[in-house]
Amino acid sequence: MSRLNYHHLYYFWRVAKHGNLTATAQQLAISQSALSAQINQLEHSIGQPLFTREGRTLVLTELGQTVLNYAEDIFQRGEELQQLLKQGTLALPSLKIGVLSSMSRNFIDTFIQPLMQQNDVHFQLIARPQPELQELLAQHQLDIILTNHELPSNDEIAWQSQLLARQPVSVIAPQPLAHLPTQIDASYREQRWVVPSYASPLRATFESFCTQHELAPDIIAEADDMAMLRLLARDSGALAVMPAVVVRDELLSGLLSKRFELPNSFENFYAVTLSRKYQHPLLPSLLQATQHLS
Fold first, then answer.
1. What are the HTH lysR-type domain coordinates in residue numbering (predicted)?
2. pLDDT value at residue 279
3. Cβ–Cβ < 8 Å for 86, 49
4. Is 159 left (phi over 0), alpha (psi -120 to 50) or beta?
5. Are 49 and 195 members of one domain?
6. How many CB atoms lie within 10 A of CB 151?
7. What is the reported pTM?
């Protein structure tokens, strides 16, 4: 492949964002044929098409979407720099934080508190499933991701996982069951339960605990989303299995109570970044401030 022509890439970026060649040519004050020629030259240098046509609309190919992701970052940063130079100030770029969509919102709130206390920062919270988070981070569309999955580095991607917290997994009771003892006994055999789904490693830990104590739980609901487990714990009238941080506010108000912790059972929370020459300026202080969250 020949050296990338950023002039051609800029025209591709404008067309890809608009989806219409004619309208983009008018905005750029060039002829449609000249704009089309620029796109063709870029595709020729890459060796693969970036668009397909559906009627009068240009639709990105899979490669075209990948190229757009990079072009978006390149030219958005360029526009930010141009604006900053006009203003004569070096304001920080927005910090893009990816969060696992099933994660505890209370934990996320704790993590971003250092940012909330500053007046001169801007950040974005982007909730996605785990595979999409990893893809966005690898494509430099995110600065950091929060997840409960540790990502070891490999030959292709140098993930950097920092353990932020190990939250004990607890048995949580609604008010009518607050009288239950703070250790397992026969009274727990008669209760209904809401628990994490089999997609969560916490489910295997709970089932091992039940086997050890000869408990056959009456499971009425399960969920793989901590926000949904929180609602079930509040509204179902059943016992719930989750880290206490998920229902922090309800525990403080007395709406729910923690009966006991499952032995040797934890949910780990990680901050994952990439090994890069240039990290976002806020990341080092943020990670330092959020070590050992509770």
1. 4-61
2. 77
3. no
4. beta
5. no
6. 19
7. 0.63
